[in-house]
TrEMBL record:
One of the Pfam families matching this protein, by short name: ClpB_D2-small
Organism: Rhodocollybia butyracea
Residues annotated as domain Clp ATPase C-terminal: 70-143
PANTHER family: ATP-DEPENDENT CLP PROTEASE, MITOCHONDRIAL DISAGGREGASE
Keyword vocabulary terms for this entry: ATP-binding, Nucleotide-binding
Protein name (record): Clp ATPase C-terminal domain-containing protein
Sample GO molecular function, one term: ATP hydrolysis activity
């Protein structure tokens, strides 16, 4: 059985729990003790929902999923961008890169929806922008494209037509 019971309490305690993880990374027993104490704090929430002790007695294990921290969200953004980079190369021979300032994509994180919200943000902001540019003819197959954050703080694309490089190299 899965449930979102206690999600508000977990969200509120997330910074402390992340700190606990960092401090006890190499001390498993201390980590388990800290998580065990926190899990006991969730008992009243479970009791209020299930009402009867015989239902609570059937819960063998409580697993706590912490909200992502900024570093983890950044890793998800990188994984998603790499996935779309591979697709662009395989399907359109477009070489995709991005500036390290992909922080705008991190802002799409919604603690209620987890990694899915970041994945959707990458697709909505970055991939949609590329698709629209390709439909308009602004970029074409075999081009190099770089995603970057413009002065207005929005995601934009810089493109490089390989023919322009060849023509430029032929000029005296």
């Amino acid at each position: 059985m899965t449930s979102n019971l206690g999600s508000e309490e977990i969200r509120a305690a997330a910074p402390k729990l992340h700190k606990l993880i960092a401090v006890t990374e190499d001390r498993h027993k201390q980590y388990l003790k800290g998580i065990g104490q926190f899990t006991k704090q969730l008992y009243p929430v479970l009791k209020a929902s299930f009402k009867r002790d015989e239902f609570l007695g059937r819960i063998n294990q409580t697993v706590i999923f912490l909200p992502f921290n900024n570093q983890e969200i950044g890793q998800i953004v990188q994984i998603e961008l790499k996935k779309w980079k591979q697709r662009a190369e395989e399907q359109h021979a477009i070489r995709l890169s991005w500036s390290p300032k992909g922080k705008l994509l991190v802002q799409g994180y919604d603690v209620n929806y987890g990694a899915r919200s970041v994945m959707n943000e990458v697709q909505t902001l970055a991939v949609q922008l590329l698709a629209e540019a390709q439909i308009r003819g602004d970029i074409q197959d075999n081009w190099s494209v770089c995603l970057f954050i413009n002065d207005a703080g929005n995601i934009d694309i810089a493109k490089e037509d390989p023919l322009e490089d060849v023509i430029t190299s032929l000029e005296p």
